[in-house]
Amino acid sequence: MRQPLPAPGLALALALVLALVAVPGVAAADQRADGTVVVGPNESVDSLTATGGTVVVRGTVTGDVDAYAGSVVVADGGVVEGTLRAYAGSVRVEGTVGGNAVAYAGSVAVGPGGTVDGSLGAAAGETTVAGTVRGDVTAGSALVTLASTAEVGTDVNYDGRLEREPGATVGGEVRSSDDLGLGLPAPALPPGTFVVYGVLSNLLVGAVLLRGLGDFSVSVAENAVLDAPVSLLWGAAALVATPLAVLALAVTVVGLPVAAAVALALPALGWAGAVLGRFALGAWLVSFADVERPAAGLAVGVVLVALLGRLPSVLGPAVRLAVLALGVGAAAVELRARLGEQGRY
Q1: Residue where a domain terminates, one of 141, 176, 211
Q2: Is 154 exposed, middle or buried, given 0-12, 13-18 or 19+ CB atoms closer than 10 A?
Q3: Fewer CB within 10 Å, N side or C side of the chain?
Q4: How does strand 151-152 pair with strand 174-176?
């Protein structure tokens, strides 16, 4: 297993490809980025996450739309069957939104022919309702306008100045409020984002370990492969004993600073141990293909544990815990061997 280390970028590239191919749901939505993003009149997509200067829906989106753009238009004849969430300079609904419409923009308008079957939430400089909103309207704007053609099924809650033209109908109450609960939420992320992020961050830590502690890391992997039961026992003992030792130190005046320092270091040490466990598992698997490149073992191990960690019920957490114990235990065995000058290496 002791081979010259290849560039860490090889591991990053390999694992990224594996993650994008193997992790379910990463590309579940139609994702587009361009100066203009258009769903054409005869086009139908399941859902849409769009980043661009202009987003226009003339066709049908059977799911949700998440738009991060300069302007968003649901044109006449356009249909969004799910929820419209827009973070844009301007938002205009001339077609139909089957769910709720939530917009954070400079201006938000439901045109005379526009319909929102759910509720409308707007945080904008100006909000205009000239069409139909079957639910309630909650708008925080300098100016909120209910045009003469506006039809609101339930309540209108607003913060700012309200102009209600004659003919506008509201099925419930019209209330002014200083707290509408329209704080900007975290944008919706595509499914699988955190899995890919976890893969890449573990790869980065692994690349640092291989680059800075290459011989030690390879020896840890060999310990785990050659004597996995011993490594697991050492790891389990370390995971139980270390917190207890920190607590025991913390109750003494002299030991408190040491306990604090160890407690601060434990997350980083635990992460390193978990990555070493992944590296050991991957190195063992790639050895069956006569591949003895540490970067390949790191990539395979990180991606495999990311996939197994998504198993239902307690299976996923159990896999991650076992890999953590394996890495921590193998590292403890190697440290003991080196400090006592009685190991294999």
Answers
A1: 176
A2: middle
A3: C
A4: unpaired
